[in-house]
Design brief:
Distance between the termini: 48 Å
Largest sheet: 6 strands, parallel
CATH class of the largest domain: Mainly Alpha
Strand content: 5-15%
CATH topology of the largest domain: Dehydroquinate synthase-like, alpha domain
Number of domains: 2
Order of helices and strands: HEHEHHEHEHEHEEEHHHHHHHHEEH
């Protein structure tokens, strides 16, 4: 039941939540029973769009609700969801609908991938990060020992339904955080025009209605770009690694903020800081455009914000040492060349990484 995206031949699609009914009917009668996984926020704001569809009206489905936030990507929640699936009688012909942001799709995909050696699942991302990044590409996972995504597998949904109307339910902070991945895709596709378009948008839930066409364009660019990368390297063996730009330091900062008593950062907020630092490193090592760097820095600081980071590398070393790109020789980064194209497995000296950290701190 766990297969590559090439084998499924099904990628993300622009649909409405109501189209879940059509997707399930296409699979009938092979789907025996349904479960809907969501967090407390998406249950309150989004669940009614799904549960009102005809396929759910007879009540023959299970609704599993988890606490919101990164803390739910845990073995504890994994076991709890598995137990509820068992109690609900979900067999190998059942299907899970993951309704939520990146935490829900990461966790729901992971549980679906291991439950009874793999059952089908459907992603319905409700956050900006979920739509353009987390739900695309088959990566699933949970955190372990305070470290990001240490347990996971590749498991691909039968469909990912992208319904932008969900974005109107988001707090402004979630919209701002989600734009970090759009910026990353803009850099890696060597398309500064996307950043220019993004600069003209209000980063608010309300703007999804007022500036719908421009939002649809930047979201579509991100989805198309990531799908193209993933389809050429579904199991992250080579080319797909470029999508980790901003994530080596970003993940370390995110984990540090969760464990050390400071205000926990959203994934996109930590990645926005990581992007600035790793693009600065790119400028220093590979000749990445100073003009493009300045544009990214200006946008992130003005539109997304500046966030606390450690004053030295020591607090981050624990997390960097467990980064999936790390080797016995040190931490390897994804950097961008002078055109913005990604360069994988770039080793940086500790003194230069500290310089990146100090550069970011100087922007406060």
């Amino acid at each position: 039941m766990i297969r590559s995206q090439r084998q499924t031949g099904i990628l993300a699609g622009w649909m409405k939540a109501a189209d879940i009914h059509k997707v399930i009917l296409q699979l009938s009668p092979s789907v025996s029973r349904l479960a809907v996984l969501c967090d407390e926020n998406t249950h309150h704001c989004c669940f009614h769009k799904v549960s009102s569809q005809p396929v759910f009206r007879d009540g023959e489905f299970s609704n599993i609700i988890i606490p919101p936030g990164e803390g739910s990507k845990s073995m504890k929640q994994c076991m709890r969801i598995s137990r509820e699936l068992l109690e609900a009688g979900i067999d190998r012909h059942g299907m899970v609908i993951n309704l939520g942001g990146g935490v829900v799709t990461d966790l729901g995909g992971f549980v679906s991938g291991i439950y009874k050696r793999g059952i089908r699942f459907l992603h319905v991302p409700t956050s900006l990060t979920g739509m353009i990044d987390a739900s695309i590409g088959g990566k699933t996972g949970i955190n372990a020992e305070g470290l990001k995504n240490q347990l996971g597998l590749f498991a691909f949904p039968v469909k990912t339904i992208i319904d932008p109307s969900f974005l109107c339910t988001l707090p402004d902070r979630e919209i701002r955080a989600g734009t970090a991945e759009i910026i990353k895709h803009s850099v890696l596709s060597a398309n500064p025009g996307i950043l220019k378009t993004l600069s003209g948008l209000e980063l608010t839930g309300n703007s999804m209605g007022k500036q719908k066409e421009d939002w649809m364009n930047v979201i579509a660019h991100s989805i198309k770009f990531k799908e193209a990368i993933v389809s050429s390297d579904p199991f992250d063996l080579h080319k797909r690694k470029v999508l980790n730009l901003g994530h080596t330091l970003g993940h370390a900062i995110e984990a540090w903020s969760m464990e050390n008593g400071v205000q926990p950062l959203r994934h996109g907020e930590a990645v926005s800081a990581g992007l600035i630092m790793e693009l600065y490193l790119s400028h220093r090592k590979t000749g990445f455009s100073k003009e493009f760097l300045d544009g990214v820095v200006r946008f992130i600081i003005e539109k997304i914000g500046w966030f606390p980071v450690p004053g030295h590398l020591e607090p981050l070393k624990k997390y960097l040492a467990h980064d999936k790109k790390s080797t016995g020789q040190g931490i390897r980064f994804v950097l961008a060349d002078e055109r913005g194209h990604g360069l994988i497995d770039q080793l940086a000296e500790e003194i230069l990484v500290l310089e990146c950290l100090n550069f970011y701190r100087s922007l406060s």
